[in-house]
Amino acid sequence: MDRPLTMANLLELFMGTQDDIIGKFMLIWGQIKVSLVVPFLRVFMYINLVMLIMLFTEMVYMVMVVTTNKLFGKKPEQRYKWKQFEDDVELGSSVYPLVLVQVPMFNEREVYQLSIGAACRLTWPYDRIVVQVLDDSTDPLIKSMVEMECNSWASKGINIHYQVRDNREGYKAGALKQGLKHDYAKECEYVVIFDADFQPEPNFLAQTIPFLHHNPELALVQGRWKFGTAGVWRMAALDEAEGWKDRTTVEDMDLAVRASLKGWKFLYIGSIMVKNELPSVLKAYRYQQHRWSCGPANLFRKMVFEIMRNNRVTWWKKIYILYSFFFVRKIVAHIVTFTLYCVVIPATVLIPEVMIPVWAIIYIPTIITLFNVIGTPRSFYLVVFWVLLENVMSLHRTKATFIGLFETQRVNEWVVTEKHGDASKVKAATSESQSRFRIGERILMLELCVGIVLFGCACYDFAFGKYHYFVYLYLQAIAFITMGFGYIGTQVLSS
Fold first, then answer.
1. What is the pLDDT of residues 401-414, one digit of tens each?
2. Of the candidates 234, 237, 228, which has an alpha carbon nearest to the alpha carbon of residue 277?
3. What share of the chain is helix, strand, coil (3-state, %, to 5)?
4. C-alpha 260: how far from chain center
5. Among residues of the chain, what percentage have pLDDT more than 90?
6. Concatenated DSSP letters for 289-311?
């Protein structure tokens, strides 16, 4: 029977045996492993299994809700009042509500013309729409170009305002908040925000505003980016929710949660799509993912007691927001992806006394993956690459999540996602960045170190292991090392 690990036992093992020094250390390691390492790893595994079950249950629930809604649910036009606006013979265009379109930007050299042009081409009576360009650019040349573009549209009869600040306090949320303080903005009934890379269809307002106008309980009507969501806010709901706040890097989520706690409802219309730009290089994608992982975790920290004390919504809704929306989707999902597949599995290769259940490493992950690819069946052939990339990014997201939860350094870091506008500019920017490449800027040491550790575990499992994890570990190690050396990004090849 193994004796409990004590200092006396360690000294006895080390001094009492006549074997070589390696043998002594192996005996000591055996005692430490049995008494400390194995129990700790087993408990850590159970914690991860619980998180995996939580994530799986949440995904099954969401799939059931979405499927039921698609099969039996009514279309938005059937559930809510909707009637297109028409010019009145006597009132003319005054039957249309006044709409403010905000376009926040920061040094957007490549896309400012596209975004401003898209906002100015919206099909809405010219006297019932106000376009507000909120330019926080620090480059004087870019500021002058954006101002000239605004003046050009103003000369065509568009009611457009070019607004600048003398500081970037609050970043995007600060700019949006400052923009609403102008007298002409206060007169507007609805406000829509388009980021600098957004290119809405001309009829976007005509498709969304009628829902808000005829259904006073709605605070927001959301359309769909081609890779995300975009929407129109009721100004009254925005004001009741205390407007934009800059306490986190997810100011839109912050506002939506506060409005929800005031009793307002939201409508999502997936058929309305808004073109936008994905991050074109790995560096931009990492900054974006840091913001999207750190921000929600930090917002959860700041709002947990505010949500619990709220008296305007039911306890069921409070539990949904705290548990499903925040804890499982914004925290558990990031952490378990990294800790289970990139920490626990490699650790059990070295500590075979701890065995992970088959359902946790094969069945549930496979089902979760299939759930994720159902929405994009044409990309099914990329599923293996997607899984490996997501596991690599889970390291970055997990780190960002803990930064948000504990409000450590970089918690409110805001790095604007670099945009290029079109494929030719992506190619030019990629070539330029490669010509100026510095080894220190390209290599990601954390990812590289994790990749090397995984590769070592894969080799050990291939030689001595009994669980045959080495196939997965080799692939995952290659993914980490590839990203660690900076060989993931987008480059457009010439035709």
1. 999 999 988 788 77
2. 228
3. 60, 10, 30
4. 20
5. 62
6. HHHHHHHHHHHHHHHHHHHHH--
Instruction: Indicate if 88 belongs to the active site.
Output: no
List residues bridging with 177 in a β-sheet.
Answer: none
In DSSP terms, which residues pair with 130 in a beta bridge? 100
Among the options 135, 246, 252, 254, which is catalytic?
252
Contacts of 398 (CB under 8 A, 6+ apart): 293, 334, 335, 337, 338, 339
Catalytic residue among 135, 136, 197, 254: 136
**153 CB-near residues (< 8 Å, 6+ apart):** 116, 117, 120, 131, 160
Q: What is the DSSP letter of 258?
A: H
Q: Is 252 annotated as catalytic?
A: yes
The Cβ of residue 51 has, within 10 Å, a number of other Cβ atoms equal to 19
Q: First vs last Cα of the chain: how many Å apart?
A: 71
Report residue 71 as tokens. Answer: 């099969």
Report the candidate in 98, 101, 175 with the shortest Cα–Cα distance to residue 131.
Answer: 101
Q: pTM of the full predicted structure? A: 0.86
**Residue 155's pLDDT band (boundaries 50, 70, 90)?**
very high
Q: How many CB atoms lie within 10 A of CB 225?
A: 18
Owner of token pair 């570990």: 473
Neighbours of 272 (CB within 10 A): 20
